[in-house]
User: Fold Sterol desaturase/sphingolipid hydroxylase (Fatty acid hydroxylase superfamily) from Prauserella shujinwangii.
Amino acid sequence: MRTLVRYGYVPFMLLAVNGAGIAVAASGSSKLWLLGLLSLAIAASFVAERVLPYRADWNIPHDDDRRDAVHAVVNETLTLGSVAALPVLTAVASIDGVWPHDWPFVLQVLAAVLVADLGITLVHLASHRIPALWRLHAVHHSVKRAYGFNGLMKHPLHQTLETAAGVAPLVLLGLPTSVAYALALCVAVQLLLQHSNADYRVGPLRSVLALNQAHRFHHLKWSGVGDVNFGLFTLVWDHLLGTYSYDPERRFTSDDLGMAAKPHYPGGYLAQLAEPFRRRGACTADEPRPEVAAKRMPDPASR
Assistant:
């Protein structure tokens, strides 16, 4: 079973779950099937993390399970709402004749993934550079363990900004609603994989796909050290931007996660919603730890 999870979990999520979602979206079937597939993905995430954990202690709630569930429900509801609004947005803002409707549906989804990945990556990078954005994004970096639901733990305003950056160019291109539904499922599945506590393996693809082996470096708590590997779906843009970092010898514990400049970030859901708007909501600059995973980017504005 452990071997099956180690090598089969990622293909199951990326190919089976996403593939089924793409088929549902392409066929015009009830979108409730997509919610069922998302539930399956969440269940598979929890099973994989318990069969083959990277760290067993990360499977133990740190008074965060209910809060993270609320984050997930709120943010996924916002995602569904944004998809539902697409027909109006594309009717007003799209450029006629640009979207490749004649492509196979799966290729349309892959194209949407790549475009969205670039927009989300750039906003993610900016959120580590611009203090006002960092206030919102800091919620996501306050975690004390890495597990699937971490990916869905975001301030709703920051998620809205990331979604807008990823979807706006697609709206201009005339993104079909059916493709958007498939994309929404792919995003949720990717977030579960990217923050997973499952000790899976993907071989050389770890330097191409933005999965947990590389993303853990992004959650290192020291200023400048964790400002790497910003991609959601791929690490292609990180390679081009010079923000890719990986060290195969590095092991992580809870002591590596969170924010060194703000170790006592509020843990409650409502407190996390309010924190960016408090005077104390910005982190002061801290001295980055001297050891760096591999490559590192120049120190950004204060974390």
Remarks:
- Confidence is low (pLDDT under 50) at residues 285-303.
- Residues 2-27 form the longest helix (26 residues).
- The radius of gyration is 19 Å.
- Residues 242 and 297 are 7 Å apart (CA to CA).
